[in-house]
Each structure stands twice: as C-alpha cells, then as structure tokens.
Design a protein that fits this description.
The protein has 136 residues and is of the alpha/beta class. 47% of the residues lie in helices and 12% in strands.
Length: 136
C-alpha cells in the first residue's frame, strides 16, 4: 500500500497513457466504424470496389494521396453527401493525415446511412509507412 501512495502520480500517468492507447479502437467499435490497415484498404478497393474519400485540406491532398481517392475536405462533406448516395451500399474508406479527421468523417457518413464505413487507422502516415504508392 505504501508503494501506491508514494507513486500515485506514476500510476495515474501509466493508467491514462494506457487508456489513450486503447481509446481509439474502443470508440471505433462503439461507433460501428472499423479501423482498418492500409493493406485492408487495398483489399477492399480491389475486391469490393470500395470508395476512398480523402477528407484532408487541399494543400495536404496535393502533397500526395491514396491512388483513385476522391477528395472531399471534412468541412464540405455534409454538403457532398448527395453526390455520394450511389455509394451507400459499397464500402467507404475515409482517409486523413493521422486518422482523427477521417474518424469524424466516418461518423457523418454513418449518420447519413452509409452501411460499410471504415477509417484508415493512422491515416496517410500509415499508408506511407506501409510503402504503398501515392498519386500526386
């Protein structure tokens, strides 16, 4: 018990750090949005005709993007939902720089009735780290 009282801040730091590591996967599962790897993105695109939506800003998109992705910045996504209606039954994969904005995009898509919504876990950083090609 003395160890706990003497090291309470260390214990709190360890617990909060662990929580921060698992929270993205927990919230993704609760929201019905699957966090997927770059390799799974490729599989869904090749075998299930998935739509890849890049929700980054224009300057980020110009720096390189997932091949054949459709660019709709997060701030304009709600306005573009009608243009995406024909993809409601297909897998839709949201992509951003790190996976945070695309998680928000996934929530918008789910609320709009898209059934198979996925988030590229780690965003373009994970895509690049996997050594997959980018378009410019």
């Amino acid at each position: 018990m003395d160890f706990v009282t003497q090291n309470i801040w260390l214990i709190v730091l360890a617990l909060s750090s662990g929580l921060m590591l698992v929270l993205p996967s927990i919230t993704g599962k609760l929201s019905g949005v699957l966090q997927i790897s770059p390799q799974e993105v490729v599989r869904l695109f090749n075998h299930e005709d998935a739509l890849i939506v890049d929700v980054r800003e224009q300057s980020e998109y110009r720096d390189g993007r997932v091949p054949k992705s459709r660019h709709i910045p997060l701030g304009k996504l709600k306005d573009e939902l009608t243009a995406l209606e024909k993809f409601k039954e297909r897998p839709v994969i949201a992509v951003c720089r790190s996976g945070n904005r695309s998680q928000s995009a996934c929530g918008i898509l789910r609320r709009a009735g898209f059934a198979k919504v996925h988030n590229l876990a780690g965003g373009m950083g994970a895509w690049e780290q996997a050594g997959l090609p980018k378009e410019r």
